[in-house]
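#lab-general

N.A. 3:47 PM
ok so I finally got the sequence cleaned up, no stray characters, all 244 residues accounted for. can someone with queue access submit it? mine expired

B.Y. 3:52 PM
send it over

N.A. 3:53 PM
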Amino acid sequence: MRGTSNWALLAALLLAGAPANAGLRALYHGESDPKQLEVEVGDNGDFRIGEPGADRYGLELGGTYYLVTTAAGGEAEVMKIEDVAAVLGERVGPIFSSLFSAAAEVAPRQAPRISEEGSRRVAGHEGTVTRVSLGNPAQPDVQVFVLSNDAALEPLGRAITRYLESMMLMAAPMMGEMAADMMAEMRAVFSRGTPLESEGRFRLQDVKQAEIPATRLALPAEPLDRAAILSRLVTGNPAGAGPD
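B.Y. 4:20 PM
back already:
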């Protein structure tokens, strides 16, 4: 009986020392649509991002980002973001073709002017208040971010960046190459840290450890080929992670 008791005690100690949850779940609040944005990160770094309960979301698996939408009949459509960029490269401008296959080589035409102004806590996490000026120096578009260098939050930064990139990419038919420049500017800013807040736009509400079910981080269908993606873009009804 004593041996059994010792094994039970050892097992209890091992379980107590093990992490209770392997993944992360975070919720951002938006000042405009989307009003809420949920990020779910698995223990391997894969993530899902979108409005809670919405039929559109972003999904990154093994470093590849997908745009997923579910039709009224329940059928899912999936598009790989590199394929969307390649199609837009042919239809809108060649700069899009390399946005995701060679992201490090794409730089904004005018580097953002960035200054740091103290610190601020958001949802219990410390971040640096960062002012960013874009566009014409005579009429600068100043945005204020709170950026964190906490390594534990880094997956959230990657998810937010990818989500915003996808929204800008899907707007490219209307915005032209300006969308590509906006993506490059955003990458330059978010390379400095995970965004906890963008004043007047979004703010982290909560982040905690959580077990993310495998079904939440799996492709619901095979990705569309480029011909099908082009058809969706031409008809004005593309699958995507952005708002309707």
